[in-house]
Design a protein that fits this description.
Rieske Iron-sulfur Protein, 4-stranded antiparallel beta sheet, 11 strands, 103 residues, mainly beta, single chain, 48% strand
Length: 103
């Protein structure tokens, strides 16, 4: 059964930034596009690189190794060389706490 786990507070992740966290046994990256926060698996589907070492480009997270792009709102591929999307996790904000739903 999946539960929400507190991983950060909103002030930890400034607008336009991303940060890596461990949520249970899952490595995730949380992104702040200025409007919302999003949680994705912290692994590029192209070569398993930690995508949290990359950067945000609008609503895309860019892998630092080969430039693959993923939509932070869905996890879908938006730029090669990746062809498979990455997992997106349900996220909610309670006060200043960022909670992510993980198994």
């Amino acid at each position: 059964m999946a539960d929400f786990v507190k991983v950060a507070v909103t002030s930890d992740i400034p607008t336009g930034q991303l940060r890596a966290y461990q949520a249970g046994h899952t490595k995730i990256v949380i992104c702040n596009n200025g409007d919302e926060y999003f949680a994705l698996t912290d692994e590029c589907s192209h070569d398993a690189a930690p995508i949290s070492d990359g950067n945000l480009d609008g609503n895309n997270i860019v892998c630092p190794r080969h430039g693959a792009k993923f939509d932070i709102r869905t996890g879908a591929v938006t730029g090669p060389p990746a062809v498979i999307g990455i997992d997106k996790y349900e996220l909610k904000i309670e006060g200043e706490d960022i909670l992510v739903k993980v198994d």
